[in-house]
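<instruction>
Derive structure tokens from the sequence

<record> Sequence and structure tokens follow
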Amino acid sequence: MTVYTTLDSPLGELLLVGEESPTAKGGTALTSLSVPDQKGGVVAADLADGARADGAAFTEVTRQLRAYFAGELTDFDIEFTIAGTAFQQQVWKTLETIGYGTTLTYADVAEAMGIPRTSSRAVGTAIGRNPLLVVRPCHRVVGAKGAITGYAGGVERKRLLLDLEAGRGTA
């Protein structure tokens, strides 16, 4: 059963979508976390018939997101579903290794995956399809020489997340 809720955040209203899972903390595995006006993001109108609003299903996810935005949480412990191509999954797994407050370039991500640095464009495309903003930290990937580029949720939101993690204020 697909469940969803919204959560006010410094990024705007987040839409959390999940699937009920008996093994997940709180009983829900996150399938999507998107922000308003996100390129390629899920919006409430995209939800399948039968999806139901259920804020209680996301109690643990909500708690962790609030702690993250307050600057009190640096590592999420949230079960989420694995979807996407094998290449996307490999890229996303690499994103999960980028520590709080650090950044890598797209070429660095390619290198960490053991593929040529020249594959950075393909890496960027896969990162752009990440359905789990914030909790799968695609915002920690920057352009060459640290340029703040490319973020499905918008560059200003990416900058806000990077500033939060760098200790330049809470979100």
Summary: The mean pLDDT is 89.
